[in-house]
Amino acid sequence: MKRRHKRMGFIISGLAGLAIATGLALNAFQDNLVFFFSPSQVAAKEAPTGRTFRIGGLVQEGTVKRDTDGLTVRFTVTDTAQGIPVIYKGILPDLFKEGKGCVAQGKVGANGVFYADQVLAKHDENYMPPEAGQAIDNAKAAKTVVDN
Amino acid sequence: MARINWYKYASPTNFYPFAEKMIPWFAFPAAVLFIVGLYVGFFVAPSDFQQGDAYRIIFIHVPAAWMGMLLYVLMAIYAAIGWAFNARLSSMMASAISITGAMFTFLSLVTGSLWGKPTWGTWWVWDARLTSTLILLFLYIGFISLQASIDDPRRADRAGAVLAIVGVINVPIIYFSVQWWNTLHQGATIRLLGKPTMAPPMLAAMLIMLAACWLYSIAVVLVRLRYIIIEREQNAARAAEVSV
């Protein structure tokens, strides 16, 4: 075996060992690597409800309500299986919309309501012109009419 | 059929004049494609149904992020070959790539931050995608400063190679972070398998910009490689210049 082949073998086996070590480490830190928990995880008591954490999901259609002070917003974050009511006082990002993704940071109160101190919009990976977006909305509306 | 003797170009002295001849062939098409790509991106591609015109940052952000990751892998491969086979030119190539890779990674972080404020509502979050990309920038900076701190070029090559190869683990973590963990950053729009979830003119602008970034990178890396060759093999390179 030539020296350079030995060196190449050393590099490849070193890299393989490192990959396994990284995989194990990331697996062990799994809980600290998630940016948010889904409402189902919160319902299953997987979320650290004692301290500040983040929940993520879709803003349920028809649940966004503003209080008379114009700043406090109430809405429900859902993953279609479970929903969590959220109260937030502050300015919402432009892309915050019913039926779209959002991530809220805060604490769960004793009454099961999530008191958020920050709300971020989570964008999806779809990009299309407004006409196409409109067409999809229309199709969805038509489907809801048929379903009802 | 005349066979090209590839080993000839593995020698820095022979590669030096060859690189000089190749540079314009990448630099000019890069300039043309940047202009075409930006034109298509700003004037031909429609605005997005949710984000309006803010999404147009992707024409720089996405190619920059891809280049940052791909150049790192390329740098690690060149550094490994240079180390294992004692190929000087290959190690020099790794050093030449490092700065362009760092620049693209920095660009993707800055453009992403500028986009994040109006879209997400924040400049920065510590989610897996953003954090691992920041680590990529630190790896590049570490590689560059480690090599700069060692006087003997061959020792600098070896030390850099170890860092580059260890750091390559981070690249798949960046790529798959949006699948493995809940992140604020959205998933991949363009996948290896399956259709991209993006309107065709938008995709066209992005791919043109990606091609432009590749050509730019090749041209700039060759320019930098020539300077590294001059610096390291001053006498030999001077002799070659005289003979050309």
How would you describe this structure to a colleague?
The complex is a heterodimer of chains A (148) and B (244). The longest helix of chain A is centred in the N-terminal third of the chain and has 26 residues, at 3-28. Chain A has helices at 3-28, 30-33, 39-43, 130-147, and strands at 53-59, 65-66, 72-78, 83-89, 101-108, 114-122. Chain A has 2 domains: 1-33; 35-122, OB fold (Dihydrolipoamide Acetyltransferase, E2P), CATH 2.40.50. The model of chain A has no long low-confidence stretch (mean pLDDT 82). Chain A is 36% helix and 27% strand. By secondary structure, chain A is α+β, with helices and mostly antiparallel strands. Chain A is elongated. Helices cover 77% and strands 0% of the residues of chain B. Chain B is mostly helical and 244 residues long. Chain B has one domain (56-243). The two termini of chain B are 26 Å apart. The interface between A and B is large, with 43 and 40 residues.
What is the beta-strand fraction of chain B?
under 5%
Helicity range of chain A: 25-40%
Query: How many β-strand stretches of chain A?
Result: 6
Instruction: Look at the helices and sheets of chain A and give the structural class.
Output: alpha+beta
**What does the main sheet of chain B amount to?**
none
State the share of residues found in helices of chain B, binned by percent.
Answer: over 70%
Percent strand of chain A equals 25-35%
Q: How are helices and strands ordered from N to C of chain A? A: HHHEEEEEEH
The Cα radius of gyration of chain A reads 22 Å
Number of structurally distinct domains of chain B: 1
Give the helix tally of chain A.
Answer: 4
SSE string of chain B: HHHHHHHHH
